[in-house]
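sorry for the late reply, my laptop died twice this morning and i had to redo everyting from scratch. anyway the thing you sent over, i finally got around to it. pasting the sequence first so we're on the same page, its 410 residues, then the predicted structure underneath. double check i copied it right bc i was rushing
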Amino acid sequence: MSSAHRCFVEGVDLLPTVRPDGDSVRSVVLDSWRRSRSSGVDPDGFGDAVDLDGPELQQYRAAHPTALIRPVVRKLLVEDAAEAGLLVAISDAKGRLLWVEGDSKVKDRALAMNFVEGADWSEDRVGTNAPGTALALDHHVQIFGAEHFSRVVHDWSCSAAPVHDPLSGRIIGAIDITGGPRVAAPEVLSLIRATVLAAESELRLLMLDSTEPLAAPAARLRVLGSNRPILARGGEQIRLSQRHAEILLLLAEHPEGLSADHLAMLLDESELDPVTVRAEMSRVRKMLGANGLGSRPYRLLMDLDTDVAEVRRALARGDTSGALRAYPGPVLPRSLAPGIDELRVELRGRLRAALLAAGDRRLLARWTDSVDGRDDVAAWTAYLSSLDRRSSMYAQVKTQLRLLDSRLGI
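ok and here's the structure:
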């Protein structure tokens, strides 16, 4: 597996099959490696940042629904894990580790890979790993040794499964066992799955006297297309200023947080005065609430989904049609912020590449009829090649392509 990993990170893509040297790559792992690479994860640059610590972490954990299942997890897993030289972790739905318990010596060793409470272990942040990949797939998973995308984790194996709110069905977190080779046993994954079932049953019992789901729907930021940006939260539709939409989107794209200086640079090429940024952040904090925004660096302490992330998720699972449906137009089209422009170009480019690769006539028709695709010569050409030469649509598309060639001087 280590040779397959080395080939992949050096730029040689692989097939989920047995290689000549006998090294095999499971499809679930290869797909995760590709997502990790697409997210820009550095296999040798494992970060050491902790998103939450101290009072902020304590406050966040106390209010989080996974706090209700911790006694079950401790009873079923933690005590035995400590004796077996293993670690048990509970994360939130974003992959942030809330509790890491078990063998104290193993816990100390895990510091070297930043497997600590408050650290972000989402797949987007650290690459292929059991808790992060289980959340990305919404499915239980085992990751063994060199199947991890980050080389610093190659001495470890892990098994994890997501935990759901029994009423809403939303993911509220994940339960993970991490340790040495013994974690690779199928029995460990069965134990994790049984613990998740027990935890969800416990949540269901706690909710018998209540009709409210434990996990409130995540706030959602809509920034695609020409309509005014909206923050949807708890049934409320908050119309946002351009600047506040830019800030929220940049924070959602940088879960590790942004300093005032970095945020200023992403918002304005001439770099806003950090004092101005702090004033804007004060207004954003009032809108989100005291528990919604952290500082030093500025970062979101709440679940915030975005329509940009929805398009990316569809592309990651190969659903080009779904990605196009979720894309009504460019990211904040009137924004001149450098950080937003970069996102705009990146998302359009990924969607366009997927459409051209798919070559689907219906999808190309929709793309060439959109703001982004109406002058896209490559897309019109691909659309033309997908049509029957005898059809009337072929003649229409060919005429449009000639007009584009003439107007653009191609």
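The chain has a mean pLDDT of 87.
thats about all i looked at so far, will dig more tmrw
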